[in-house]
Amino acid sequence: QVPLVESGGGLVQPGGSLRLSCTASGISVNIVAMGWYRQAPGQQRELVAAIRSGGRTKYADSVKDRFTISRDNAKNTVNLQMNSLKPEDTAVYYCNIDRETMGYQYSWGQGTQVTVSS
């Protein structure tokens, strides 16, 4: 299994921004479709953003125009820039292979907690 390590979460006020980063060891993030997921307490894990090897991106309706997914091929990371954060964005955020596109997925990492609260 490929370890996926997420970082960058924290506590932020509504309207604030955070930048999450995901480092994958043993795999080049530029040749697979990667996604950022989140899971709020009592809810199912959901895909919020994904990026294909060619650079095409997709977003959940709830985060469109606020979140931006990107890759840094030199650092082998996948990033999620989150702006205009809302309390309903509070969740544990995970990165993984985009299962919908690739048909497989790795074990989940520990994720990074994002809390949006005043």
3D structure, described in words:
The protein is mainly β and 118 residues long. The protein starts with a strand and ends with a strand. The mean pLDDT is 95. The chain contains one helix and ten strands, in the order E-E-E-E-E-E-E-E-E-H-E. The strands form two sheets. The chain has a six-stranded mixed β-sheet. It has a four-stranded antiparallel β-sheet with strand order 1-3-8-7, with no helix packed on it.
Trace the largest sheet across and list its strands: 2-10-9-4-5-6
Mean pLDDT: 95
The percent of residues in helical segments reads under 10%
How many helices does DSSP assign?
A: 1
Rg over CA atoms: 13 Å
Q: Report the order of strands and helices.
A: EEEEEEEEEHE
Strand content: 35-45%
What's the structural blueprint in terms of helices and strands?
Elements: E1 4-7, E2 10-12, E3 18-24, E4 34-39, E5 46-51, E6 57-59, E7 67-72, E8 77-82, E9 91-97, H1 99-102, E10 112-116
Parallel strand pairs: 2-10
Antiparallel strand pairs: 1-3, 3-8, 4-5, 4-9, 5-6, 7-8, 9-10
